[in-house]
Amino acid sequence: MNGVAWLSHAPYVSPRRMIPQATPYRPGNERKMGKAAKHEITGILIAIAMILGAPDSSRAEMADLLQKLNLNAYSRRTIPPEFNGRTADGRDVSLASLRDKVVLLNFWATWCLECRPEMPTFERLHRELSAQGLAIIGINAREGAASIRAYAKELGLTFPLILDPAGKINLTYGVIGLPTTFLLARDGRAVALAAGPREWRGNPARALIQALLAEPAAPKEAR
Fold this sequence. Notes:
The protein is an alpha/beta fold.
């Protein structure tokens, strides 16, 4: 499947013009939890319970969360294309190596002004949820390792940042603008697409990711 055909499985919606300012991750912040933060967590848990506790309406609840994030949903049978790449620090990463994980696949570049506010939020999600099975993967658009390493050091990014100097992975996924983010489930299916920045630090994003983390992986016979 070529990139255009893959991307066309989800309708395009132009990105929002207003970009919420992301809050940088600072170790120790999670200990300073006020009443507002506790209420936010309670809201997330309620949303997750609604999705997991009501099988007949789970798709509707999922659709509601996708709509709140302005994400474009894929059909449940849509499988994303395979990719193989190497990170700026020399690690090999492929989609196959991320089997059984929820994957947030973000296409970005150091020169992309709309990409930058999302990065601290992705780092926070990586630190908080990677142990539960969330994989945050950044795929750079045609830049060198030195530029990527400097950018990662500046923002304190530790999640994998994959090199794509020839733009092969970007082309495979049909990426025509940055940032572009794909959300993939544990069973390997494509869940949703975001063309442009989104509010990944809010309650709907948290509830969506936690609901996907609670899903089972694909049965071995189906792999």
